[in-house]
Amino acid sequence: MGMTPTDLPGLVREMLACEGAEAQDPRSMMMAAERVFEKLRAYLSQRVGRDGFRTILVRALNLAKSRFPYLGAVRVEADGTLEGLSEAGLGDRQEPGNETGPEEAAEGAIDLISHFVGLLVAFIGGDLTLRILRTIWSTLPSNDEAGNASHPGEMPGREQEAT
Question: For 39-49, what is each residue's pLDDT tens digit?
């Protein structure tokens, strides 16, 4: 069974962890989100072209803005780079009326990445999407593990932290 939408938040958190995000530090989450998009851009632009990557990212950003208005200050450059994510989310470049706290900003970044990955799943399927993500981040769960998560956001094969 392939990846489903309920797998996305957990998978995105795994991707962010691979990029050094600390769960309790919104600033590190935002910086890691920028690195995630840079790696996705570098890999996918070679396969779908710069415009193809940019189109998917613009759509994901528009979807995420509906829930996280602060993302209105973020822009996608012509080459597909994402500009202003950490600045917009952490108060350095927020638009009036769209102020947000650091925790909400980190959730917005997770939502943006989830929309991007969700669009990939819609276009090319869950198995191929997960294969691509595992090419970039080799420690992500396998296709079978991601497809057999028993709870949304839980990735089998990963020990749950003791609370």
Answer: 999 999 999 99
Predicted TM-score (pTM) above 0.85: no
Using DSSP's 3-state secondary structure scheme, residue 147 falls into: helix
Nearby residues of 50 by Cβ (< 8 Å), 6 or more positions away? 78, 79, 80
Phi, psi of 40 (to 5 degrees): -60, -45
pLDDT per residue over 39-86, tens digit each?
Answer: 999 999 999 999 999 999 999 999 999 999 989 999 999 999 999 988
How far apart are the C-alpha atoms of 18 and 43, rounded to whole Å?
A: 16
Greatest Cα pair distance, the chain, in angstroms, is 45
For CA atoms 13, 152, 157, 125, the dihedral sign is negative
In the chain, where the domains are located: 5-91+99-133
Distances (CA, A) of 130 to 41, 103, 133, 140: 16, 27, 5, 8
DSSP secondary structure letter of residue 3 = -
Q: Measured between alpha carbons, how far is 121 from 108 in angstroms, rounded to an integer?
A: 20
Neighbour-count burial for 147-156, b at 16+ CB within 10 Å, e otherwise: bebeeeeebe
Q: Are residues 3 and 122 in contact, defined by beta-carbon separation less than 8 angstroms? A: no
First to last CA, the chain: 30
